[in-house]
Amino acid sequence: MFLLNTTADYRLALDPRDEKTLDASAAVEVERHLASRRDHGVTPLVALSGLASEIGVAAIHVKDEGHRLGLGSFKALGGAYAVIRLVLEQAEQRLGRVVDMAELHSPDIRAVAQAMTVACATDGNHGRSVAQGAQLVGARAAIFVHSGVSDERVAAIARLGAEMIRVQGTYDDSVREAARVAEANGWIIVSDTSWPGYERIPGLVMQGYTALVREALRQMPEPPTHVFIQSGVGGIAAALAGHLAIALGESRPLFTVVDPARAACLFETARAGRPVTIAHGEPTVMAMLECYEPSLVAWRVLSRAADAFMTVDEADATDVMKRLAHPVSGDPAVVAGESGGVGLAGAMKAVADPAVRAALSIDGRSRIFVVNTEGATDPGKYQEIVGLSPAAVVAKNREGALT
Q: DSSP label at 261?
């Protein structure tokens, strides 16, 4: 399914709150935090020239977040950054003075952090980021996971020292339970989705994602003409669409939000012209995107800055995983998890459909940008789908580079 953005807010300026969250000065603060992290490195931008030639566009660039901060997902940028910002703010209140990012590991700040508990619901990746942020500063983390989250993903979060709390039901059920328990215990919810009265912290999470697009714009020889970004509740799509709109203005690329067909809350919200909650159906293999209600903050940005919305099917997601692991001649292999390659799957589906291709003005001069939002965060599931282990794909890539 595909539709152009016809909402009343389309192409309006961003809400001043969102502009402040996603502008260049905010992104500089994120990069300043990242520069202080021992495990930080700019993630690769991979050119798929062979695939671009095959589908008839000028370029395809993939920002590979499977390498981000040791967590294997773009979410490493958001939750941890929000936790650190909240600790610094709490320290300023307790100490009665301005606290700089450089003081984060001082005894005074650590004493403040040790008295704090942060909590969130997660499909896997956001929880790892929140837990990592808490571990960095010495805070406690309580992570709520629904029944569909694999044991392997739960164990990966627990290894970061977080208390794991299982919740029966869906991701949205775990969000509600996390909010209820946190309020009862005086914990701070660090969610990547927002609801009425709860917007600022999800905004900080989105702010963390601006580092990704800032890096990519510096890495690309030219800015993209088209962007396809996958969506769960909408956080990464909104962060990228909003920052690109601010940074590039009228020259910004055409931006398409890509949903799983089985969990298309942003697509249905765009169709309705207002936030809607969709019915739970059959689970999707795109587990990190299985969300049934959009983030209100994300929708406020996307209603203005996204140009189109589309869905992809289960086979689209698994086929692109295999395609990236076994690329066309000359292209490097990319390890993409079940949700990682969904933006590229959307781009390929759009290019293959003459009506969609025309609606988005895609031609031989188009430069497409997508994000591999996760590597093999569940290695067993990855091998089951692709037929190779993540290590085997990496080794094959290394061998190809040497020949």
A: G
Please report whether residue 339 resides in a domain. yes
361 and 282 in a common domain: yes
* Contact partners, residue 191, CB within 8 Å, separation at least 6: 120, 121, 175, 178, 179, 198, 201, 202, 205
Catalytic residues: 75, 123
Q: Which pLDDT band holds residue 148 (cuts at 50, 70, 90)?
A: confident
CB count within 10 Å of CB 111 equals 13
pLDDT for 400: 64
Residue 355 half-sphere exposure toward CB, CA atoms < 13 A: 5
Q: pLDDT (tens digit, 9 = 90+) per residue, 255-280?
A: 999 999 999 999 999 999 999 999 98
Residues 168, 313: one domain? no
Which runs of E-coded beta strand occur in 93-247? 117-122, 140-146, 163-167, 188-189, 226-230
Q: For residue 124, what are the domain limits?
A: 79-191
Tens of pLDDT, residue by residue over 153-168, are 999 999 999 999 999 9
Q: How many CB atoms lie within 10 A of CB 272?
A: 11
User: Based on the domain organization, do 67 and 83 belong to the same domain?
Assistant: no
Residue 75: which residues within 8 A CB-CB, separation 6 or more?
125, 126, 128, 129, 192, 373, 374
Q: What are phi and psi of 116, to 5 degrees?
A: -105, 145
Rama region for 72: left / alpha / beta (φ>0; ψ in -120 to 50; rest): left
